[in-house]
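[recover] target loaded
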């Protein structure tokens, strides 16, 4: 076995994943490696070499877009050659699919959505949320293993490596699907996971044009706007949502506007430091996890809140 490997579909997450990989590799008495795969990715090799003992680089023009089956096969072929103890992947939508496909090919254990990760007595041990976020399950599997780590589960530390760059030669398989068209997804401001303040709307928002209330409140608080799954999937007002199957966030302040608080949604906001609920339903489940509860009409509360904050800020 050759240590702990890291591959991330989001380059910004390599730092925190390699920080954890370095910790685990030390326990295993092995090294770390970052997998850099794609088109025109060579320019990122030097920065990864400062965080990992090795960087395996595969820069090919045919890897211009991510197809999980292709990437899983590439990493599988590399793993067959080098036999890593553990492969860590980011637990994004792409990462989850990749980790499952890769584990199947390797006939290895797979633990998704890891919040804690360790190596104990030669086994990989991880904590992950279950039952819609109502419980934490500790799961273990023998090595080799594949794990998908939730974004920002671990703190990034400054690593001072002088890693070796290894250019690999792997035949890139043909994708099972064909890319027809790409469209730029509209996003506003910073990612929800990075936001310190998030204002989210639920079914209590009656009309799409009423979302301007959330945006006005977000503007005065310098926050971001999100939503529950029904507003994104059922009404099509957003492209993403907050919850167990969407974004998991941990802002300093989370304001839930017209949100009942289904367990799937609550699972995505459990790490928020302060939760404020604005809802007419006194029995809404969101109230059970809220620090402050305003049982009133959001169409009266939100405009008044915006005015009060503006006055406080002298605007």
């Amino acid at each position: 076995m050759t240590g702990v490997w890291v591959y991330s579909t989001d380059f910004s997450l390599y730092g925190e994943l390699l920080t954890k990989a370095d910790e685990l590799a030390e326990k295993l008495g092995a090294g770390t490696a970052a997998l850099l795969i794609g088109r025109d990715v060579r320019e990122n090799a030097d920065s990864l070499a400062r965080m990992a003992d090795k960087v395996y680089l595969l820069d090919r023009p045919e890897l211009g877009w991510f197809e999980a089956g292709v990437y899983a096969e590439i990493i599988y072929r590399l793993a067959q050659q080098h036999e890593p103890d553990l492969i860590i992947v980011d637990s994004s939508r792409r990462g989850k699919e990749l980790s499952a496909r890769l584990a199947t090919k390797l006939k290895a254990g797979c633990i998704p959505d890891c919040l804690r990760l360790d190596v104990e007595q030669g086994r990989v041990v991880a904590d992950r949320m279950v039952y819609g976020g109502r419980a934490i399950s500790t799961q273990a599997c023998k090595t080799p293993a594949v794990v998908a780590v939730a974004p920002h589960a671990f703190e990034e530390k400054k690593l001072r490596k002088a890693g070796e760059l290894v250019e690999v030669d792997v035949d890139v398989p043909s994708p099972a699907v064909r890319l027809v068209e790409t469209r730029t997804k509209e996003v506003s401001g910073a990612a929800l996971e990075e936001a310190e303040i998030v204002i989210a709307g639920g079914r209590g928002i009656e009309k799409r044009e009423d979302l301007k209330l959330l945006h006005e409140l977000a503007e005065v608080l310098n926050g971001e706007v999100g939503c529950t799954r029904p507003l994104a999937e059922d009404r099509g007002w957003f492209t993403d949502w907050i919850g167990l199957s969407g974004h998991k966030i941990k802002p300093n302040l989370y304001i839930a506007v017209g949100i009942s608080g289904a367990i799937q949604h609550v699972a995505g906001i459990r790490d928020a430091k302060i939760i404020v609920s604005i809802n007419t339903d006194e029995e809404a489940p969101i109230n059970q996890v809220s620090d402050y509860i305003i049982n009133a009409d959001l169409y009266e509360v939100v405009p008044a809140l915006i005015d009060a904050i503006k006055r406080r800020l002298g605007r």
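[recover] notes: The longest helix spans residues 298-313.
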